[in-house]
Amino acid sequence: MNPTKPVTVLFTGYAPVHFLCFRPIYEQLVQLSGVEVYLSGGVRTETEPGFTYDGAAMYAPFHIQPERILSVEEIQNRHFDVLFSANKRILAPLENFETRIQIFHGVSFRNRGVRPENLAYNVFFLIGPYMRRKFVEAGLLAEDDPRGVPIGFPKTDPLVTGELDRGELLQRYGFDGKRPILLYAPTGQAYNSLETMGEEVIARLAATGKYDLLIKPHDHPKNEIDWFQKLAPLEDAHTRLVRALDIVPLLYLSDLLITDASSVANEYALLNRPLVFLDVPQLIEQSKAQGAIVDLETWGRRGGLVVEHPEQVEEIVATSLSECDRFSEIRTGIASDLFYNHGHATDAAVSWFKHKFLNSI
């Protein structure tokens, strides 16, 4: 690398969660002398000719300077030293990048990140030992393959570092902390729990009068349903629809997480708090049919109880809160196996970058 030439870095993605996975790294890279960082992609819309990407819509909530945002058209004939991305599809020709880094946007029991399409990247910021094993088992990486770098998941660092303020979060959502706080965060895949039983689950839990409930619809669901409009009648002083893009503060605030097949279940294991899964058999079968490496045996949903029918949810939530240590040892195992560098994944990523591109540690 020419020491007088800046290292040019590009991030691309098509959903806010993709950038949220890169944002901790971005915030450090933009502070480095000799590094130029740009962002591209944007909120994706499918049209008859193909996909369109709205960069302004995607990055505006993060207050990114406009000069750092490049359109997808602009990056087609421009060279960059490094690409970071959290989705499988690279939005510019491969030859535009010397180093292509896949950082992933989570790890769930569906293992959607473990797929041949990701071999277009030549560096993998692996989230944990479990992900490495799955890549090896799938024949996509050798056990000692140097392309697989043990980084972790920078997005979740704040869950461990103590930088989040529960009092400030309670104030933000208008809760006093006297009731247990439940967070409902489903995945966005078709046949997710919000589509199948979620509305009844929310109504039942609200009717108990025992909980403060946060509902976080997925930011890019496969089926384009306006859940904020659809669920608006359920909102009240103790039931809030959350439009915030970053789920990490919500995870930190909540006393129990309700989800289905989302990777947030594993992220929540870092806090070792009660988990409840809403069963999604159609989603699981569809994932298998689409070739996903669905793994319910290693960890799967072992970190909490499973609700098969909505009328079970009140009892299962109450039991999970009263027996909060019941799955504690399993959740500790999940966190250890699924994540490298708890609380320090961003530091690990930036240290790797500096060593490789800036000849420093």
Automatic annotation (TrEMBL):
<dbReference type="InterPro" id="IPR043148">
    <property type="entry name" value="TagF_C"/>
</dbReference>
<dbReference type="GO" id="GO:0047355">
    <property type="term" value="F:CDP-glycerol glycerophosphotransferase activity"/>
</dbReference>
<dbReference type="GO" id="GO:0016020">
    <property type="term" value="C:membrane"/>
</dbReference>
<dbReference type="InterPro" id="IPR007554">
    <property type="entry name" value="Glycerophosphate_synth"/>
</dbReference>
<dbReference type="InterPro" id="IPR051612">
    <property type="entry name" value="Teichoic_Acid_Biosynth"/>
</dbReference>
<protein>
    <recommendedName>
        <fullName>CDP-glycerol--glycerophosphate glycerophosphotransferase</fullName>
    </recommendedName>
</protein>
<dbReference type="Pfam" id="PF04464">
    <property type="entry name" value="Glyphos_transf"/>
</dbReference>
